[in-house]
Amino acid sequence: MELSKVTLEIFSKLEQQWLSQREGNRKTRVLTIDGGGTTGVPSGPALIHLEHQIQLKTGNSNSRIIDFFDIIAGTGIGAVLAAMLNADDGNCRPLFSAKQAVKFVTDRRVEMYKVKNVGVVNRRRMFSGKSMEKVLKEAFTRNVDGKVLTLTDTCKPLIVPCYDLNSSAPFVFSRADASESASYNFDLWKVCRATSSDPSMLKPFHLTSIDGKTSCFAVDGGLVMNNPSAAVVTHVLHNKRDFPSLTGVEDLLVLSLGNGQLNNSPQRKVSSSGYCRNQCVVGIVLDGVSETVDQMLGNAFCWNHTDYVRIQANGYLNGGVGPTTEEVLNERGVESLPFGGKRLLTETNGQRIENFVQRLVVASRTSSLPPSPCKSAAVSQLVNGR
To answer: Is 208 exposed, middle or buried (0-12, 13-18, 19+ CB in 10 A)?
Structure first.
């Protein structure tokens, strides 16, 4: 009898150790969305397909993207989409589905990037900041209670970068900082306006925190972090409040969505005199930043390339119209190689998303999805025990 009791205790301790190891091995799931896309939103079809596949593979039509990711980040138009997918509707559920968010941005794109002429002699075509602000305020004000949402009003952690002219340094908005102090909590619409302030087309945007103690004079985050993947990976590795068990990139599962190349074609980058055209410099910077980050993460995850997936619409944005849904999803994927170069994959972008979702669902079955820090889970991710 005593031997059976000892044996039971031993097996009980072994079971607890095994379960803790399984929980500790769960990947932290990261979603990032690039900036760009003033003439189209190539990441939109990828987001819609991502959410649709999640719903198909879980058998739950109420599943949302944010349910299967632990943190989301975005720059520029990517930040607008990231915030919309993450904004809390008051019941710990996202305010927008992927389809609703993409439709809103697509339908209101002309209003967000409303063109105006400035100057008398040398007239320039610029975007109207007031028009963009009107749309963003509408997106991030809850209809139910009229609340203007802030960084703390999100279902999961959020990361959004911009560049602060006051400090001459990058400024990263994060829910982690906002939760710690009101001095780092900002209205979501202001955060999105700050990261979208392309200095070639929009005036820098001045914003202050909820308590008025922190200010930022912002220009486009895309100039320094158009692809925010590196910023969010660094954030989760050091954010022990939200991610206490994460130790290295081997604990991460990252999906990075691009918004297409900004330069129309190689021939238009250089003038007839052989000099680089001024109007394409910003595009070169944004594309260069995104590609550099992709290369860095490709190296970091080269030991297991399936833990880092980059979806990019490599077709050019011509004539003010972005690629169609079919073009984005049917395009063959491209993967960065260690130490330089890329290779064309046999899988399409759509297939790569489907394979990634399969990994998300498997992870959720082997280890229950954790609730958002400081918030309780509001929906069952799986139905009928599947």
So the answer is: middle
pLDDT (tens digit per residue) in 198-253: 887 888 999 999 999 999 999 998 888 999 999 999 999 998 888 888 888 999 99
CA distances from residue 217 to 150, 206, 249 in whole angstroms, order as listed: 18, 4, 33
Distance, CA of 144 to CA of 87 (rounded, Å): 13
In tens, the pLDDT along 180-193 reads 999 999 999 999 99
Q: Nearest to residue 226, comparing CAs of 37, 39, 30?
A: 37
What's the CA gap between 303 and 173, in Å, rounded? 31
| Token pair in block for residue 78 | 């990517």
Candidates 88, 187, 220, 307; catalytic one:
220
The DSSP string of 259-317 is --BSS--GGGGB-TTSSBPGGGHHHHHHHHHHHHHHHHHHHHTTT-GGGEEEE---SB-
Burial level of 252, CB count in 10 A (0-12/13-18/19+)?
A: buried
How far out from the chain centre does Cα 308 lie? Answer: 14
Residues counted in the chain: 386
Instruction: Give catalytic status of residue 220 as yes or no.
Output: yes
Reduced to 3 states (helix: H, G, I; strand: E, B; else coil), residue 46 is helix
